[in-house]
Amino acid sequence: MNQTKKKKKAILDVTTKLLRERLISDISMDEIARLAHVSKVTIFKYYENKNKLMNLVIRKELDFMVENIQKIIATDADFRETFRQIYHFKMKQIQLMTDIFLQNMIKQYAANPSFFDEDTREIQHLVYQELFRKGRAEGQISKDYTDEDLFLYVDIISEGMKSIPLETMIKHSEHLTEMFFNSLKKGQ
Predict the structure, then answer these.
(1) Which CATH superfamily is domain 57-183 in?
(2) What pLDDT shows up at residue 31?
(3) Separation between Cα atoms, residue 25 and residue 68, nearest integer Å
(4) In a 3-state reduction of DSSP, which class is residue 146?
(5) Phi-psi group of 86: left, alpha or beta (phi > 0 → left; psi -120 to 50 → alpha; rest → beta)
(6) Residue ranges matching CATH 1.10.357.10 in the chain
(7) What does the pLDDT look like over 47-74, one tens digit per residue?
(8) What is the pLDDT of residues 123-151, one digit of tens each?
């Protein structure tokens, strides 16, 4: 690994660690530079400003989730099992994130709502499109529903989930999953 990659990795690793431990407002670029063993100028050279660095780290966490969900979809598991594995993976990842990291995500979202809305929705749609193909091929999703219909449904569910405590979602996950499956088989 060359020096540039080592420095960038150190900066991202330190920032990720700090985002899990403290609020963004309590993290300074001086501290990141000191802990990453780079100059503050180096950080600004690679990441322009604190906000962009924070967004990049949060985005990397989301990218990690997307990569793993894509791997789950690519398995030989049937549609229902694939969906269950994705749901459980997402819940596990959310549980692994610290409360402070989640607060930092929400702060960044509040500061720039389009950061998550546009990017996350686009990524989510690409991932779910593969899942929908699998479901249609197995006859688990009615051909009467277009991808646009299904995306709207997923967006509505995702928006609603933002206001529900994680413990409640986990407690009712099996029932919610069955309700979701049953709603996809219109006319079959």
Answers:
(1) Tetracycline Repressor, domain 2 (1.10.357.10)
(2) 96
(3) 31
(4) coil
(5) alpha
(6) 57-183
(7) 989 988 998 898 888 888 889 999 999 9
(8) 777 788 888 999 999 999 988 899 898 88
